[in-house]
Specification:
One of its GO terms (biological process) is tricarboxylic acid cycle. This protein is mainly alpha-helical and about 80 residues long. The protein has 5 helices and no strands. It has a single domain, classed as Flavinator of succinate dehydrogenase (DNA polymerase, domain 1), CATH 1.10.150.250.
């Protein structure tokens, strides 16, 4: 039995809020409303991003290092949603 879209969105939301690094919890919690507008392929990309460790994610979002090509677009989307 496969997961429904609603269940997937809730699961990804929980994974976004329970990262282990408070900064990433806050950043990704602010991004979770966008998940509902994403295609299944975009959700796949986001889920893949969540598999990365918090220190790398933070460095990519903060511009301290360049993200791998496969995560670049999603990192840009997350950064675009951050307050200036």
């Amino acid at each position: 039995m496969s997961e429904t879209r609603d269940t997937r969105l809730r699961r990804l939301g929980m994974r976004s809020m329970r990262r282990g690094m408070k900064e990433m919890d806050l950043i990704l919690m602010g991004f979770t409303p966008m998940l509902a507008t994403m295609s299944d392929e975009e959700l796949d990309a986001y889920e893949s991003l969540l598999d990365e460790n918090d220190q790398d994610l933070y460095a990519w979002i903060a511009g301290q290092s360049a993200p791998p090509a496969e995560h670049g677009e999603m990192i840009d989307r997350i950064k675009a949603g951050l307050p200036a």
